TrEMBL record:
Domain Endoribonuclease L-PSP/chorismate mutase-like residue range list: 7-144
Signal peptide start and end residues: none
Official protein name in the record: RidA family protein
Organism: Plastoroseomonas arctica
InterPro entries: Endoribo_LPSP/chorism_mut-like, RutC-like_sf
Length: 155
């Protein structure tokens, strides 16, 4: 029987991918006590970076928002692995960190990161409301347009 969060994902038309392996010398998530920290995830879709380039230059804000949403889907895939497959163990989305590849003059980072934040609330309801940091960076691994990391409380 699917759990509450799995049912919500199905309602949203989201199928979580298999968790992506790390791109370098780190682990995809780390658990300590009742906290899970998920390493930064790029906008992978079907095993490839789906949205590349700089938001505000070659990537629109709407596409950047879609990139952040894809990043969060990949964060949730890692979180599911950390929870032994049971996303109903998630008590709270504590914090999200967003990195948006953009030129120096770009200032709409928050609007882009809303792609991840909005999805956190869609999936986890009130427990999805979180603290957040969003910054612009000159480049990300694989020329990804965005990267999202997260911290979660689990039962």
């Amino acid at each position: 029987m699917a759990g509450t969060i799995d049912a919500r994902l199905a309602e949203l038309g989201i199928t979580l991918p298999n968790p992506a392996p790390p791109m370098a010398n780190y682990i995809p998530y780390n658990t300590t006590g009742n906290l899970v920290v998920v390493s930064g995830q790029v906008p992978l879709d079907d095993g490839r970076i789906a949205i590349t380039g700089k938001v505000g230059a070659t990537v629109s804000v709407d596409e950047g928002r879609r990139a952040a949403r894809l990043c969060f889907i990949n964060v949730v895939a890692q979180l599911r692995a950390a929870c032994g497959g049971d996303l109903d163990r998630v008590v709270k989305v504590v914090r999200l960190g967003g990195f948006i590849a953009s030129p120096a003059e770009f200032t709409q980072h928050a609007a882009v990161m809303n792609g991840a934040s909005d999805l956190a609330v869609e999936i986890f309801g009130e427990a999805g409301r979180h603290a957040r940091t969003t910054i612009g960076v000159p480049a990300l691994p694989g020329d990804a347009a965005a990267e999202v990391e997260g911290m979660f409380e689990i039962a």
